[in-house]
Amino acid sequence: MNRKYRKTVIAGNWKMNKLASEVKPFVEELRGMMPKTKSCETVLCVPYPLIPAASKAIRDSRLAYGAQDVSVHDSGAYTGEVAAPMLADLGVKYCIVGHSERREYHAETDAMVNTKAKNLLAAGITPIICVGESLDQREKGLTMEYVDYQVKAALAGIEAKDVKKCIIAYEPIWAIGTGRTATAEQAEEVCCEIRSVIRGMYDARTARAVSILYGGSMNAKNCDELLAQPDIDGGLIGGASLKPQDFARIICGTALEEPWIR
Ligand code: PGA
Fold first, then answer.
1. How far is the CA of 260 from the centre of ligand 1 (A)?
2. What is the pLDDT of residues 54-95, one digit of tens each?
3. Which of 17, 139, 185, 225 has its CA 20 to 30 A from that of 83?
4. In a 10 Å sphere around its CB, with 0-12 CB exposed, 13-18 middle and 19+ buried, how is residue 8 labelled?
5. Residue 114 has pLDDT above 80, yes or no
6. End-to-end Cα, the chain, rounded Å
7. Domain span at residue 147?
8. What is the number of structural domains in the chain?
């Protein structure tokens, strides 16, 4: 983490889990365990139908809520799609794009990820752009090349002032939902590389302003080591964000670095 230049962000990705009626009890339990002082931006990315419940439960708290996907279109005859202005209208502040599950199961391409990020920025929503290599790519030594390409494709045509508003989440596919976390060194190496790609595309000032998260089996046990890395500015948490106690522990992990703020 480097709080001098950028925000620390802990975002929960609930994926397709929980019901609207479960949001309020979850938020109440979580709030009871959060650090006294704001140590990070905390976001719950919930399924679309849970957004109104999240908005209500989170009111007057230090939490924010987000979505998990958005359409490449802004309106029109696209049955089943949800557009960025609709999310903004519901008070959504963050939205995940390019998650590996969407890339894999919904054929989301790099060009689509780029369009979605632009649509979100135009609607005033922060995109959380996911990138990450497969196990096969890692074993073949292609991690950096592939992640560099994904970052460049996702940010193509986005101006520096807007890139500063984006969040990048490095999520190695082999670590998602597998319990097999990247080591802190592996995660830092790629997050540092992502920052250097942004530096190359823009400039040092822009690169140091972008929050880069790690995601992939981050949990209450391994979070401290990951969050202690200089280029890891938080986490995108799947499984562990479904349990208030585990999620709260990760949020508290962002306060450990600076014990005086507790
Ligand atoms: P996980 O999921 O924490 O359950 O591995 C992370 C994600 O998919 O964002």
1. 30
2. 999 999 888 999 999 999 999 999 999 999 999 999 999 999
3. 17
4. buried
5. yes
6. 17
7. 9-252
8. 1
